[in-house]
Specification:
alpha/beta; TIM Barrel; binds flavin mononucleotide; 8-stranded parallel barrel; about 350 residues; single chain
């Protein structure tokens, strides 16, 4: 008499998901975007990066580390770009290695706005308004945030087009799609917020105007690569690099309703801790996205594996993104499948932990 096989510890993490017309995922786990600062000369992705991502190709979907769309977008050392032919060639090695191992990878498109730094770019950072963030720049000993220069209306329009070009470059580099980085207090988030956006042109003033940049970027990126290959990451919870002002939540409600008409692959929660309840969101950021966005939601932020499994089971989210455990465990999916212990992330883990 044969005994029953041991049940899978996290069955819902291993449920296949249809993300969009062009993309079916073998499981519901997304590797969250994780900046590792290990691009090479010219911000070109390296062979080491190809090996790092290829080892994690059994995630349902990998979202690459944030990738700058143009030289003036940079704020940390050695973050890769997607604007030069050399960078596209470097990424080709990464995407080919992931796909050879049966994986799928989106490129996260990034502009840091006022969080960028002249130390890296040689030029004053740009932002919706000339309002600085205070404090020391992480990963950059001795640097403090700078006063940004307000973008002219024409410059904003040019920037929108840069996202489209970056998205086309990403597809040329072999990515399966792109994720617009609208989260974590970077440029797009800075446009969405009253505190950081005090413009008087069509990109500021009213909540619709504050959402205009995010929506124009989304629309041009959709035109460039197709809505089924586009996701966006958002932080309605204002957890880093800026502060919430009363009423900002209404901008997010409007934005999510508009995004809901675009047929995107997903909306992804940009948070470090999804357990925090925000009065102005009526609870957790994942629940807020779930409530106001009709399509696929990816929850993220210090989610335990059991808890993530339960959130999928209960329909609280469509997919879950896991970040730090993927750095610490190249074989995370295998460990989750077998119930093996996982290594706990430590920020001093070497970059070449690949
Ligand atoms: C080292 C590190 C780098 C990160 N880099 C990015 C990034 O490039 N883009 C992004 O949207 N979020 C980034 N994040 C946030 C993660 O994607 C994720 O939201 C966060 O780590 C919470 O998930 P976790 O608790 O599963 O790690 C980073 C987080 C860490 C710890």
């Amino acid at each position: 008499m044969s005994s029953d096989p041991r049940p899978m510890p996290y069955p819902h993490l291993f449920q296949p998901v249809v993300l969009s017309e062009s993309l079916a995922l073998p499981n519901s786990v997304v590797m969250a975007p994780l900046t590792r600062c290990f691009a090479g000369e010219g911000l070109v992705p390296t062979d080491e990066m190809a090996s790092y991502y290829a080892k994690r190709a059994d995630a349902g979907l990998i979202v690459s580390e944030a990738t700058i769309i143009s030289p003036e977008a940079q704020g940390y050392p050695d973050t890769p770009g997607i604007f030069s032919p050399e960078q596209i060639a470097g990424w080709k090695k990464v995407t080919a290695a992931v796909q050879a191992n049966g994986g799928r990878i989106f490129n996260q498109l990034w502009h840091l706005g006022r969080v960028a730094h002249s130390h890296y770019t040689g030029t004053q950072p740009v932002a919706p308004s000339a309002i600085a963030w205070q404090g020391r720049v992480p990963r950059s000993p001795g640097l403090e945030y700078e006063m940004p220069r307000e973008l002219s209306t024409e410059e904003v329009r040019v920037l929108v087009k840069k996202y489209a070009q970056a998205a086309s470059n990403a597809l040329e580099a072999g990515f399966d799609g792109v994720e617009i980085h609208g989260a974590n207090g970077y440029l797009i988030d800075q446009f969405l917020r009253q505190q950081t956006n005090q413009r008087s042109d069509e990109y500021g003033g009213s909540l619709k105007n504050r959402a205009r940049f995010a929506l124009e970027v989304t629309d041009v990126v959709i035109d460039a690569v197709g809505a089924d290959k586009v996701g966006i990451r958002l932080s309605p919870n204002a957890h880093v690099h800026l502060e919430h002002s009363p009423g900002d939540e209404d901008t997010f409600i409007y934005l999510l309703e508009e995004l809901g008409t675009r047929g995107l692959a997903y909306v992804h929660e940009g948070a470090f801790d999804d357990h925090i309840e925000y009065d102005y969101l009526g609870g957790r950021a994942s629940a807020f996205l779930r409530k106001h966005y009709p399509g696929n939601v990816i929850a993220c932020g210090s989610l335990g594996f059991e808890e993530a499994d339960a959130m999928l089971k209960n329909g609280q989210t469509d997919l879950v993104a896991i970040g730090r455990p993927f750095i610490a465990n190249p074989d995370l999916m295998h460990k989750l499948q077998t119930g093996a212990d996982t290594t706990v992330f430590d920020q001093d883990m070497p970059k070449h932990l690949v």
